[in-house]
Amino acid sequence: MGEDYFGRIRSVYTRLNSLFFKYENEVLGALMATLSRENYLLVGPPGTAKTTLVYALSKLLNAKWFYRQLTRFTDLEEILGPINIAKLLDGKVERIYANSIIESEFALLDEIFNASSAILNTLLSILNERVVYDGEKVVPVKTWTVFGASNRIPDEEELQALYDRFPLRVFTEWVSPDDTEPLIIKGWELRMDLERMEPLATMDDVQAVNKIITQYVYEHIKDISKVISPMVANYVEHIPISNRTRVKVPMYVATYLMLHGIDIGNTELSPSLLMVGTIKVLRYLVSNKDQLNEYYSFATVHMPEDLLRLSELLSEAKALINNEVYDEARQRLRDARELLDQVRGKWDATMVKLYSNELSELEELLKRLEDALAGNRR
């Protein structure tokens, strides 16, 4: 039963990755947040496609979305909807919720930390409880996922509670100058594709997948926790993570694995899969960009031994080439090429897919070093 749901959601994931240039982390985080019914924060300078990503996701899921850029002068009516004047004339204070955040399935709040205190207080209940306290009424909010966008991390004390309501975070940057040409080409393709984009799945699929994964995690939480808890505990010694967020890590891990081809409920989540999934999702739980270096160190230490050895061989070869010790460098590269071929041959398809980025990066480095050595034959 889950396969159709899973397949359609994965097609959305694949399509988003094909649309954007070097945006894999941002795309993955957006899908993880959506399937976990979680809030997701994109931090980065203007012009890094944050708004476009949420817009494309909403189109591919045929979801009703709400967008506002927040300032100190944004008032509640812009978020919750205007007062119904006809009712007000009858002495009743009611809002028109149509086209407000209350009636949306996705909400993107741009420059969220610039909002007024009144807006921020309203957002806390939306982010945490999916309700709005409007006067004496408690109004359920239909919003499934709230996306926040900001060019800064808040350091004000009064904003820390709001910041913690976005446990999944990604820090995005402008691409490097060397990538300008492919960026321009991909940007124009994206611009045209957005206009003719058709849905590949629905919010019903999202809700079905969420239900399947939630039920699976609940039924297997003791086994899952036994595997991932030591790793998370080790991680939080370096990077603090709140209790609220730690409890949600199993859901994020299962969602990550589903997006990478694991049929949750039909495939046993082995300890090795759970460990890889945990390593991968922890990058989304850092509080600031500086902590990413801590994450990378943690992820490197916990890489499979074959990848660690491959990385060491390439580092040694690079140092030898720089010191013009070409014969020994050549042997290191031969060993690295042999090990890389062995990894691709002996690893199962799932592990190769989960570490596809790392394998591709190591293979690119290997090729560059081989080319450099070829230019210095002696």
From TrEMBL:
MF-aspect GO terms: ATP binding
Gene3D superfamilies named in the record: P-loop containing nucleotide triphosphate hydrolases
Keywords: Coiled coil
Residues annotated as domain AAA+ ATPase: 36-176
InterPro entries according to UniProt: AAA+_ATPase (IPR003593), ClpA/B (IPR001270), MoxR (IPR045427), P-loop_NTPase (IPR027417), RavA_ATPases (IPR050513)
Superkingdom per UniProt: Archaea
Pfam families listed in its UniProt record: bpMoxR
Coiled coil: 326-372
Stated name of the protein: ATPase
Lineage of source species: Archaea, Thermoproteota, Thermoprotei, Thermoproteales, Thermoproteaceae
